[in-house]
Amino acid sequence: MGGAGELTSSTHAIQSLDTNDGARLHSGYKEIVRRFRSRRDTGMINELQASKSCYFFKQSAPLTAKAVTELFRDVRAGQSNPSKNHFSHSRKSHNGARWSALCFSFDRSPTFLPGSTLTDRVTGYLLIVEYLNYVAVFKSQLDLTSGFVKDYLVRIGAQQIDRGLTSKNSVFDRVRLRHMSVSRLALRAKTLEGVDLQNNVGFASSSRFAPLGYSFSASNQHYSTTPRTGRISLRSDRAGHNDLIEFARDIIDRIHPKPGKPSSSPFLNAFAQPLELSQLTASPRQIAIDTAILSQAIFDDATIRLVEPVGSGYRELCKARVESVLQTLTRVLEVSVLRSRWVITDPASGNEVGVIAKNKTRIALKRLEFPSIQGIAVESKQFAVGADNDRMPLRRYIDRNEAFILLFEEPQLAYIDGSLYQDNSLIDGGSIFLGYLFPHPSLTGLVDEKGTFSSSHTTFDANTTFGAVVSNIALDDDALVCDDLNEEWADFIGFRTNASTPRVTFYHAKHGPLSLGASPFHVAVSQAIKNLGNLALPAARMGGKYRRWNTHYANKNSRTNISRICRGNSASVKSAVDFCRSAPHTSKRVAIVTSSLSKRAVGKAFGDIKKGMPANPYFVQLYWLLSSFFAACTEVGAFGCVICQK
Predict the structure, then answer these.
(1) Which are the contacts of 363, defined by CB distance < 8 A and separation ≥ 6?
(2) Cβ distance 374 to 305 under 8 Å?
(3) Alpha-carbon distance 3 to 39, whole Å?
(4) CA angle at residue 467 from 465 to 469, to 5 degrees?
(5) What digits encode the pLDDT tens for the residues 577-588?
């Protein structure tokens, strides 16, 4: 029968034999014990039932039995009061793959009782599958050590996962997107859900978003993936270890590059496209830490904490300190290339504050130095404060989790969440971007934004941007008011009350010398995005607006005779507001009116990029800033545009 009976009967047999055969029999006894223990361990892993969800990596170095043994030893050493292994296997063979597994129980302090001596008894497992120079990791409560990951594993590129898993027949029901911008004012991320997003999503601004995770159906199977972490899941019943190994093999076969493999789904192609890092030749220009990732992990998911050394131990940072640290990191930093080094500079002080480096598989944040983050480290909340042996400096955590976005001199590129993306809308010479620019002849020859003021002024000077808005640019509006200064929503607000095409327009008027830089637009874009919610003309706030609009304009210590109601009267303005607010088909438009930009010059800049010429870094900043503005407007159902010189 085997098992305990076999071991007992074999022991009796050994005791009755001649002692001259001792060495041979001792060896046989040891073999029987080994088989018994092997059967015991194998029986326990046969009880394993887990979901088909795991993390995929490429191998950067060949795995060995020694490496797996050391990993399992370190994983056990990292837990409190570990039990004997419930099962432990090293590099077993199965259908062309190798697998290793570990399972044991250990103590864990409840995160909600950090000062108590109470513990929870937790059981965790790891199942590691090696196949075709890839590694798949199934896990619960336990994780690979950072040293093991660094020595043996690298991420799989998002492009490889997209192309391997999806096709033209894939039906997407969920996608999580990150905007390719470093602007704090732009919409940072969004999640779309629907039965078939191909039929539900408008793609006007989709190319400005990079897909960071999605779920889809194909061949009657439902998958979800997060390329940044390499996590791929199949919706299914729980499965035993052999079926899990087969699932890992199947996914690896699909994502392993094959000659002639078609591109990914047309749905994904509408968004920013992932590129291999080896394709990057452009120099970096800006970097911003994605503090949203940190904030979510600290406050929302409560998976990590920030700590600082005190005496021989550590203490957790209070909420106010954490928010101060995040605020310090929430800024756009400049990047320049100095003697092959990518140096990070704080534009506020001009000081070097860090270094980034491009490796074969990723871009690494090698150094980041702000006084307010020195000594601050990140711990897992699985452990009591100060008990996490894998604690790491905050800079290393940001680097390890690739919580930063990097922009380049070529405006179509961005490095987001550890992957390089390209906005394909620029390949055609920027035709989509140029569609948001509207030249107007009245913006030529202007000398100021608002002009001079006196008590004799009854209108804005004709040679100013304000004068151009009133006299020419806003002529389609039936009612027009000046909302400049104080708690303004825009410099001017126009209302078109045509029954078939009602429209509300917020005009943000600026003046400056012709330039392809972003500087003239920062204030206008900031003001425009901040007031997008007021396009709905909220009734609760209109009383104060009406009172203000019924006054004369005052500026630069001068009270003028310029009526803030530039077209219409009090009654017609109120009627226009009520009509535009209540009409369900009212269109909303946000226009930056500026004399500092020429559409012809922008078109030439895009044409130079299309010809392969290096992009002007100032134009890159302008492109990203205005793209953020256009996308932000789209997200609230408005149309953002720039009215500029020819």
Answers:
(1) 277, 356, 357, 406, 415, 418
(2) no
(3) 8
(4) 70
(5) 999 999 999 999
